[in-house]
Write a structure and sequence with these properties.
binds zinc ion; 7-stranded mixed sheet; about 350 residues; 6-stranded parallel sheet; Quinone Oxidoreductase, Chain A, domain 1; 13 helices; 2 domains; binds nicotinamide-adenine-dinucleotide; alpha/beta; globular; Rossmann fold
């Protein structure tokens, strides 16, 4: 089968690989129908993810049809259409029982990282019954792909951890796919303001069409003053970090209102200064989270009922044999205006 393989820092290729086989009774083999590329795949290619070894097939998102099932799998059968979660979970370990699937002792984020992933014609999914979701009739499968990772990430790490509430004020720093997914799901709670902050005007323009109330291009270093001016000098109740660099976490520290929350989503590769000299008296909280994908069934219902439309995030389509072009388009997002690129089988 064809597969996109990580061959070490800066190196990837489309290769012929053997089809995956069932290994454990709880496995299924999925024939991929659609997959996509995540910012985290670009992190892997930069060498930022030590757990991902050269030779790994990348990809942790997608939808497909079941090709074969392990002997203990009763919930799924051959030919079922399924959504693949970016997080594999056994459902039985202590962390899974607490809803913290991301820390599953035999799962977590392993797909396209510690085991071969979804950017291929076929993929082996371990713990299939608790890591796959049946796709209801009639839902848009491009939109479904957004449920593998980015919607649960924005919702769990940003909206839920940030306690977005009716009438509250929210700022989201970073208008990439994750920041925009956070914007879509924050609206389920009717905050009065959602201010999107980025340095890319085309992403800010997209944010306005997705429901942002205001946008700020922070290139001039004046974003904190602008947020304060719009919030009677108080700042925002929820400041969500969706970039993963010191400057943007720092901005969140400057714009969080007394009593507010900084909800970090970004993957940080560098240390960040914590300004307790300013924040000790402000009654704030700071949260961090690796997506658990525990809200996937709930998000699926909001998609089905039309309350959110994640297909807005899809900007480009490619075939699997064009996946190197898809990577190039995704990596040059500022020029190509790419948000999510769908790769069809
Ligand atoms: N916590 C989790 O479980 C989890 C899951 C998935 C992704 N992530 C992380 O979330 C982050 C966002 O992901 P993404 O795919 O949207 O990334 P992305 O790179 O596509 O988007 C980041 C956005 O930040 C903007 N930006 C860059 N520098 C900026 C600055 N100084 N000020 C304001 N904006 C700036 C960019 O223009 C871009 O629009 C990444 O760090 C990713 O690794 C975390
Ligand atoms: Zn991802
Ligand atoms: Zn587990």
């Amino acid at each position: 089968m064809k597969a996109l393989v990580y061959n070490g820092v800066g190196q990837k290729s489309l290769e012929d690989r053997p089809k995956p086989q069932l290994q454990d009774p709880g496995d299924v083999i999925v024939k991929m129908v659609k997959t996509t590329i995540c910012g985290t795949d670009l992190h892997i290619l930069k060498g930022d993810v030590a757990t991902c070894a050269p030779g790994r097939i990348l990809g942790h998102e997608g939808v497909g049809t079941i090709e074969s099932v392990g002997t203990s799998v009763t919930m799924f059968k051959v030919n079922d259409r399924v959504l693949i979660s970016c997080i594999s979970s056994c459902g039985k370990c202590d962390y899974c029982r607490r809803g913290m699937y991301s820390h599953c002792t035999t799962g977590g984020w392993i797909l396209g990282n510690e085991i071969d992933g979804t950017q291929a014609e076929y993929v082996r999914i371990p713990h299939a019954e608790t890591s796959l979701y049946a796709i209801p009739e009639g839902v848009d499968e491009d939109a479904m792909v957004m449920l593998s990772d980015i919607l649960p990430t924005g919702f769990e790490c940003g909206v839920l951890n940030g306690k977005v509430a009716p009438g509250s004020t929210v700022a989201i720093v970073g208008a990439g796919p994750i920041g925009l997914a956070t914007l879509l799901t924050a609206q389920l709670y009717s905050p009065s303001e959602i201010i999107m902050i980025d340095v890319d005007d085309s992403r800010l323009a997209a944010a306005l069409t997705f429901g942002a109330t205001r946008t700020i291009n922070s290139s001039d270093g004046q974003a904190a003053e602008q947020v304060k001016a719009w919030t009677q000098g108080r700042g925002v109740d929820t400041a969500i970090e969706a970039v993963g660099i010191p400057a943007t976490f720092d901005l969140c520290q400057q714009i969080v209102a007394p009593g507010g929350i900084i909800a970090n989503i970004g993957v940080h590769g560098q240390k960040v200064d914590l300004h307790l000299e300013n924040l000790w008296s402000q009654n704030i909280a700071i949260t961090t989270r690796l997506v658990d994908a525990v809200t996937t069934p709930m998000l699926l219902k909001t998609l089905q009922s039309g309350k959110i439309d994640p297909s807005l995030l899809v900007t480009h389509h490619f075939k699997l044999d064009q996946i190197l072009d898809a990577y190039d388009t995704f990596a040059r997002a500022a020029e190509t205006k790419a948000l999510k690129v769908i790769i069809d089988a």
